[in-house]
Amino acid sequence: MGHSGTDADVVIAGAGPTGLTLACELRLAGVDVVVVERLAEPSGESRAGGLHSRTLEVLDQRGVLDRFLAAGELQPVGHFSGLYLEFDEFESRHPYPLMILQSAVERILEEWAGELGVRIRRSCAVTGVDQDASGVTVALDASDGGLATLRAGHLVGCDGGRSTVRRLAGIGFPGTEATMTALIGDVELPDLPEDYVWIRRRVGGDYSAIAFEPGWHRVITSEYDRVVDRDEPVTFEQLRDSLVRLAGSDFGMRNPRWISRFNDAARQADRYRSGRVLLAGDAAHIHFPAGGQGLNMGVQDAVNLGWKLAAVVRGTAPEGLLDTYHDERHPVGERVLHNTRAQSALARPGAQTDALREVFGSLMVFDDVNRLLRTMLNALDVRYPADCGHPLAGRRVPDADIKEAGGATRVYELLHAGRPVLLDLGAGVAAVAGDWSDRVDLVEARGEDDAWPVPVIDEVPTPTALLIRPDGHVAWASGPGEPVDTVALRGALTRWFGAAGRG
Question: Against a cut of 0.85, is the pTM above it?
Answer without folding.
Answer: yes
